[in-house]
Amino acid sequence: xxxxxxARSIELLDALHGVVASSLLDIAGGFSDLLQPLIGHSALVIxxxxxxxxxxxxxxxxxxxxxxxxxxxxxxxxxxxxxxxDPWGQRAVIGGVDRPITxxxxxxxxxxxxxxxxxxxxGAADPESTLAVVGRLWQLVATSISQQVAAxxxxxxxxxxxxxxxxxxxxxxxxxxxxxxxxxxxxxxxxGSVSAEAARQTATELAASAMVTLRxxxxxxxxxxxxPVAQAFARLRDDLRPLVRFGDLDVQFIEPPANGRALPxxxxxxxxxxxxxxxxxxxxxxxxxxxRVQWDCDGSNLLIQIRDDGAGTLSTDSPGVAPLTARVAxxxxxxxxxxxxxxxxxxxxxxxLDAPLAPLTPASEWGLSPRxxxxxxxxxxxxxxxxxxxxxxxxxxxxxxxxxNLLRKVGASTRAELASLAR
Length: 423
Hints:
GO terms for molecular function: DNA binding. This protein is α+β, with helices and mostly antiparallel strands. It has 4 domains: about 1-150, 2-Layer Sandwich (Beta-Lactamase); about 165-225; about 230-350, 2-Layer Sandwich (Heat Shock Protein 90); about 365-420, Winged helix-like DNA-binding domain superfamily/Winged helix DNA-binding domain (Arc Repressor Mutant, subunit A). It has helices at about 5-20, 25-35, 60-65, 70-80, 120-125, 125-150, 155-190, 195-225, 230-245, 265-285, 320-330, 370-380, 385-390, 395-410, 415-420, and strands spanning about 40, 45, 55-60, 90-95, 95-105, 110-115, 120, 225, 250-255, 265, 290-295, 300-310, 335-340, 345-350. Helix 7 (about 155-190) packs parallel to helix 11.
């Protein structure tokens, strides 16, 4: 940071401390503010697999950050890993538009993308040094993100669970997109102005492109959202290895069935953080030489048991135990401590794998007019606006008006979700 000057370097370090100390929900905005005096940008996007619930963290122009996709970011990251080069002067499709970007990957695998970058007067004084400084700042921020996720604070778990609940809406949006593809296919195949050979070629290209996109989004979403239970437990063993290797503690692991249901990311992270915290709380007691850790999955819950061979004096109010209850509560789980004097203590945790469903408003309370009920029935049948207009003898604009009212009254965010609720 020498080229930036001592005063500016100190200012940057102070700002960096504020960024890494902020919550995961605020880290993108804080980092964007820190970088603007060095490299101006229209949007800042972070993509990290550490955060399963919200792998994207974004700040800046809503027209960009509301439209950027995991597929776009994954493409940039793969390109950087195979063709490392100067981060300046690059272009990529971000938010559906080909635009100038500058990007870095950290040692954690996390990606930072700045769109429409422009060196400020401060940064332009020594562009190469400025880019190097930003890369090092990003490395520190990415490490902080990884450490915060590993700690699994309650606020992060709550946000991840909310994001998991939102996934159904994303799937509904994807369904809408592919419904449009199918309509395009039908239009091509029914067209009388296109030869059979040309129609077949166009239809094949449309279908192939749609299938590639669908599979890429589906596979990426699944890999980010879930951890196989055996893999999650193996990561737990790695986390606890220092205690086994460098201490006198005997840690016994009872592994879960290898073919058990995959764990949502926030549940796997919470489970590991809870076990780490519990083991540390147990070994703080005098006379603890052995700890047994067991995971199981009943298809609906991650079941955790941690037992020691100590004096059996542990309780939910013991130091190190009380903070664990907040993590369990964030995921709607249960936590219990049983202690038997002279026989040891046992902690039992149950974490539900599925986010609770949001309460639905009964259809009788939607307050729909007869016309809206008719439109809703046709939407639920899969009819599009043109077919609904023809069936009800109204204009397509009137159909759009009714559908907008239905979305508002029913509490749906997409047409597919509206149809699902109606059915």
